[in-house]
Amino acid sequence: MELGFLLGSLLKIIAIIAYIYGLMWVLGRPSIWAKIAGLVGAFAVVQLALTDINGFRLLNNFDNGLLFQACAMTMVALGLNLIYGFNGQFSLGQWGFYGIGAYAAADITYRWINGDARGLLVLGLGTLLGTLVLIGINTWLQRFRGIPVLSSFTLYLIGALIAGTVAVYLGNQLNPLITPLLGTAGEPGPLNTPAVQQIIYFLSVILAGIFAAQISFLFGLPVLTLGSDYFGIATLGFTIVVNTLMVNSDTILPFPEMKGGRGMIGIPKLTTWFSAFFFMMLVIIIMRNLIHSSTGRSLVAVREDEVAAKAMGIDVAGAKLFAFVVGSFFAGLGGAVYAHYIGFLSPGTFDFLAGFNPLIIVVFGGLGSMTGTITATFGWIFFLEGMLRVLLSQMGTEAPTWRFVLYPITLLLLMLIRPQGLLGSVEWGFLKGPQFTPAPRSRPEPAHESVA
Amino acid sequence: MQTVQVPSTPVVYHRQQPLLWVGRGFFAILGLLVLYILGTNLIKNPTLFAQIFISGLQLGFVYAMIALGYTMVYGIVKLINFAHGDVFMVGAFTSFYAVSKYRLHQWPNTVFPNLDPGIGVIIGAITVILLSMLVCMILAITIERVAYKPLRDAPRISALITAIGVSFFLEFYGALNFVFSPRFIPYERPFEVVAWYIKDGIHRVLPGQQAPENSITFSNIFLIIIGVSILIQLLLQYLVRRTKIGIAMRACSYDRQAARLMGIDVDRVISFTFAVGAAFAGAGGVLYAIAYSLIWTQLGILPGLKAFVAAVLGGIGSIPGAFVGALIMGQAEAMTMGYISTPMRDAVAFTILIIVLLLRPTGIFGEPEKEKA
Questions:
Q1: 3-state SS class at B183
Q2: Which chain B residues in 20-79 lie under 8 Å from chain A, judged by CB atoms?
Q3: Are the C-beta atoms of residues A226 and A234 closer than 8 Å to each other?
Q4: Domain count, chain A
Q5: Could you tell me which residue, B65 or A411, shows the higher pLDDT?
Q6: Chain B interface includes A390 (CB < 8 A)
Q7: pTM score, two decimals?
Q8: Is any Cβ of chain B less than 8 angstroms from the Cβ of A156?
Q9: Which residues pair with A53 in a beta bridge?
């Protein structure tokens, strides 16, 4: 039975990786109709496999869960690859932003289905006002030259705090207008139909991403000025601080519904295959287009040589901050999707030890290779979680520990033998970037016809 | 994008920083706020303040022993030796097995039955600490030879990831059932705890009794930790200033290539540095386990990270800096636990790291770093 299960898992991994490669190949075709057909087809194939037809499902509940987990992890790992692989900033804070996104989105939908619109109102207004204030301060600071990071950080921090306070005040004022339409958890009102909940869920995912991005902006602005390894430790500290706050979210932070270390239960399970696929493809397409733009090339230039990049006129600090913010945005999206799939959040999930998973995926797949990251994520989730199920039956509770014994050995061997990752920076199909067909070049006429 | 007008007259660029007062003022206000909180608490209840100060001192001296290893290794190979905290953990576990399983702390009394039990316990405890130091040294040299040496010329981040990998390996390999087991293990102390309290003179807390209210208590563990820690500091100062290998270490940390040209065996010096740092961490692990008497395999992560913060605070690469930074860290943590809330202690440590790196990246004792790739 176990051999059969293993073979089945292996087949599934091969199938899913072939699926991804096929999708990327179709998206790489020049025709826009081919791309649209590819996306719709790819969505439909898995949707069909997940549907129950006469009691037969190609992918069972377990695979379904792995699939959603892999989608969320792909977003996180791609974000980290943007920060570390493409921009060269070694960050361990990705897991913290993932947790922030998960908790923020879960709070919105949890409050919404329980007849409280404050989550959506406060976070929506907060992100809106916060973005406006940050942009306003940024334009004002353009007047000064050579402003120290310390001062600009202080100004941004004060601005963000004021925006947050105003958002909380406005949210509390506006809440009674919406609350009657929501009803209670027992008898849902007109704004709590499944369709509206889906809309709120999509909004909450995007708001969670923006919220994570704003926090990463405030945090990254001062910390990115540090050297490479100090930055790694500071971001590790960020993850630990976020985890501490999660454990005390009902005592230190004013969120009794998060229930601190006991874990937040009762999050509506709103993630469907459509939303997971939608957000994953959104992240993949945004990131691919970003990397093959001039901004993306400037990010890679900063990774290769900061001094040379500065000499070429690239704003090095700005490029680092940009990559960090966009990467954290992706992490926030991933966290939100994950929260609504699993329906239960506990601080243990966002422990900084678990935060090394995306790092190992990125290093394994190849620094600066989106193809490698996506392949590694799907292979990783399906292989390891599948293996865990087999191993758990044989070894009992020691299997997870063994897993963590094997990770570092893999990491060590990889660092010693192939530090650029398994795939290096090889890309495939769509991810290779736009392929320009060179215009047919006529041979230039010789200026002086030599007289024979 | 802003269009820049070309000035008609040549512009002399000063290194002036507009709005610098905003940032400085903000952090000055923060500092004053912290001082105000501490001051009011000191006036309100001086004995409680002194008690918290003593526990902070105990924590700080333990951190000092770990921070030395970080700062020495970083000074020479520019590597954040992430596995250092786990070497500390291995030191604690070694002493646990030596004490609970093999009763090593009783060997003087079993070999020489006529010996005074007091002296016997002291010799036994010293043996346990020395054994832990030895095991940690061997472990650190092995780690250095296997994992770090092949990456000496690789990018710094590769070495950091390797260090993280080693750290994980030690934690989770130790958590396997046939190694240390993943449980919290109560640690059996090799000697009895004796506590004193200060109220109208120093009195001993009798066994089975509580110290009276409004008194400051301290134990023999506190004294031992301070004693060992200061002894190690002096030993290290002697080692670095006066011995040949210490001079070689300083030469390597100044310029490794030039040191190699001068005929110094750099690899041997680096191994020696790792070994010395690990030995001190091992001693720290034993004392930490004796003081808090509960051990598990992830014991070393947070003390290790905080000791690193302490090393950065004092100026990484500087030995007195690590000592002072560790004392400040210990106080910060104890004050947070006493006056704000216990779970925030980790948050405060990393907030301090970020603020220090912003305001004074070279630390208190650090010299301005010369630009090196």
A1: coil
A2: 20-24, 26-27
A3: yes
A4: 1
A5: B65
A6: no
A7: 0.89
A8: no
A9: A56
